[in-house]
Amino acid sequence: MKFQILDPTHPSFKPLWVRILCTVLPLAWAGVEYSNGATGWAMIFAATGLYAGYELLFMYDHTMKKAEAKAEAERARIAAEAERPDAD
User: Which of 18, 34, 37, 51 is placed for a possible disulfide with 42 were both Cys, Cβ 3.0 to 4.6 Å?
Assistant: First the structure.
């Protein structure tokens, strides 16, 4: 199983406004931290916002297509097992 920090397939990320908000808030907070002189925290929040933007905005369609294909393959496997006669 692959470890993911952020799971774009979660239903809460389906609306575009939620994905944009999860990207913009860390970036905005990075600006606040930088303006207060905390460049270390600013870099951490900037990296978090950039990662969220990459996963939730740039790669979202690709990730959802992969998840749908995986779910379809699983449904086909279950259907094939249901049609197979038992080996009793």
Answer: 34
